[in-house]
Amino acid sequence: KKLIIINGPNLNLLGKRETNIYGDLSFTEFFESITDKYPNVKLEHYQSNIEGELIDKIQDVGFSYDGIILNAAAYTHTSIGIGDAVKAIETPVIEVHISNTFSREEFRHQSYISTNAQGVILGFGLQSYELAIQSFL
Ligand code: DQA
């Protein structure tokens, strides 16, 4: 299986950013552990702070990969463009969030991704990503 984790804005700061919410592990450290744990999965990772770059990546992989694990971060709540990209492609998308967005501010309750996602996993910390990987196996 060929899967990609696509991370949106500020997720490059994992391990440094609001560690009470997002934990103190960097994504690089987490990604290493997860690639070791699932050696049969061709797992890639892409991160951008730029909305259009995330859309370009979704389009690039969206007709050939087996699955996309998408944490669009703050763009989840604002980006019709990313939502449309998820709708336009053939590869199934699992929407992921580290935190339970429903237990946080009202503006995090809205998602432009969910309606076109195959599923949504949130609130399990970085383990949310792993649960999404397992869903594709
Ligand atoms: C997040 C939740 C978003 O509301 C927030 O803007 C993020 C991270 C999460 O993984 O919990 O940057 O997507």
From TrEMBL:
EC number: 4.2.1.10
Residue spans crossing the bilayer: none
Residues under site feature: Transition state stabilizer: 17
Active site: 22 (proton acceptor), 97 (proton donor)
Reactions mediated catalytically: 3-dehydroquinate = 3-dehydroshikimate + H2O
A molecular function (GO) term: 3-dehydroquinate dehydratase activity
Classification via Pfam families: DHquinase_II (PF01220)
Main function: Catalyzes a trans-dehydration via an enolate intermediate.
Family the UniProt entry places it in: Belongs to the type-II 3-dehydroquinase family.
Complexes and interactors: Homododecamer.
Protein name: 3-dehydroquinate dehydratase
Natural source organism: Psychroserpens ponticola
